[in-house]
Design goal:
Layout (H helix, E strand, L loop, with lengths): L5 E4 L13 E4 L14 E3 L22 H13 L1 E6 L21 E6 L7 E2 L1 E7 L24 E3 L7 E3 L2 H5 L3 H33 L1
Parallel strand pairs: 1-2, 1-3, 3-4, 6-8, 8-9
Antiparallel strand pairs: 4-7, 5-7
Length: 210
């Protein structure tokens, strides 16, 4: 168990995770592949190799697509959350789609990061292992307000929505603090379930040796 109870892999160098006391964050320089602990993790692996327009992606690093597969394995081993765009081809191919559950007990939900304070609507899917769907913390209410940028326009991720301005690269990639807090609540539940399982296993072992 790390001194910081919550682990985030594949984050931006300027990620808000690093401002949180409870989070141990791995960016590109730190190399998320070096993480070998047993704590539940939140993974944000690069998505451009898995998007609908992956054939148009530029400057993709060798082995980048495999980072998502590493994340899936780590989450199934430790418990945790994988975050990817709702159009990612991971879902339906390597992961259950929204509303489905796999043989590992993992399930996928779809959210809009706008409801967590993102500057633009950003449909996102979360693959979660380590809790039952019924244990999932309540999601925030739908944000029906309209947020304008300094140009007096709404923002959109790609800028292809009429009347909107395109988000900056940072705005496209950052994780809102309220979503990080939600992830923390999920990981607390996963940790609690792991503790229960360990206690049950120890009790069974004691019963067998008594």
């Amino acid at each position: 168990m790390s001194t910081q109870p919550f682990v985030a892999l594949f984050v931006r160098e300027d990620s808000a995770y690093k401002e949180k006391q409870n989070w141990d964050a791995y960016d590109f320089k730190r190399d998320a592949l070096s993480y070998s602990g047993a704590d539940p993790v939140v993974c944000h692996p690069p998505c451009r190799s898995w998007g609908r327009l992956s054939h148009m992606a530029h400057n993709v690093r060798e082995g980048e697509a495999e980072l998502a597969l590493f994340s899936i394995d780590k989450i199934r081993q430790n418990g945790g959350i994988l975050e990817h765009p709702s159009g990612s081809r991971l879902f339906g191919k390597h992961l259950p789609d929204a509303g489905e559950t796999d043989e590992y007990g993992g399930f996928t939900i779809e959210i809009d990061q706008y409801d967590f304070g993102h500057v633009a609507h950003k449909r996102t899917k979360l693959y979660i292992c380590g809790i039952d769907r019924a244990e999932l913390p309540v999601l925030p209410e739908k944000d029906e307000t309209i947020h304008y940028c300094e140009k007096g326009k709404r923002r959109s991720i790609a800028g292809n929505v009429k009347g909107t301005t395109r988000c900056t690269q940072y705005q496209r990639e950052y994780t809102p603090e309220k979503l990080i807090d939600y992830f923390e609540n999920v990981l607390k539940l996963i940790n609690a379930n792991k503790t229960k399982e360990e206690t049950t296993d120890e009790s069974r072992s004691t019963d067998r040796t008594a």
